[in-house]
Design goal:
Helices cover 66% and strands 4% of the residues. A hairpin with a 5-residue loop joins β1 and β2. It starts with a strand and ends with a helix.
Amino acid sequence: MSESATDDPTGESHARGQGEPAGQKWLSGFVSLIGLWLAVSPLVYETAESMLWNNLLIGGTIFLLAGYNYYRITNGHSTSIGVMSLAALLALWLAVSQWAIGGQFALSGLEIADAGLLWNNVVSGLVAAALSAYIAYAGGRELSRQAATGT
């Protein structure tokens, strides 16, 4: 009889043969969807060209990184701590980039971004950063546990 999940003594559900909490896989998928939203959100809001490209590049990269981690976990590999740490840093950049590159009010005064995009980037960026950092942290704890027990 084949089971897709087992319970360990701590009560966490682990995907069979992966050693990863099942939640990490779904959180990675959720972060990937946030990245996709961040990439396409400038098409919904009126925005400056600089913010359009920033969102497309950074949001698309977050989408790919988190999607790659989801793929890894689904195929029996451990969480890529480096990939999810990079996704967290990029998401933090997206949250603060409005002020760093002048997306809200450019220095020339000509480029004005929609306030909706500004708050969308701040909230979505912080949520994606927090979830990505948690996934990286949990993956590191799992590797430490495996090293300590020799499994």
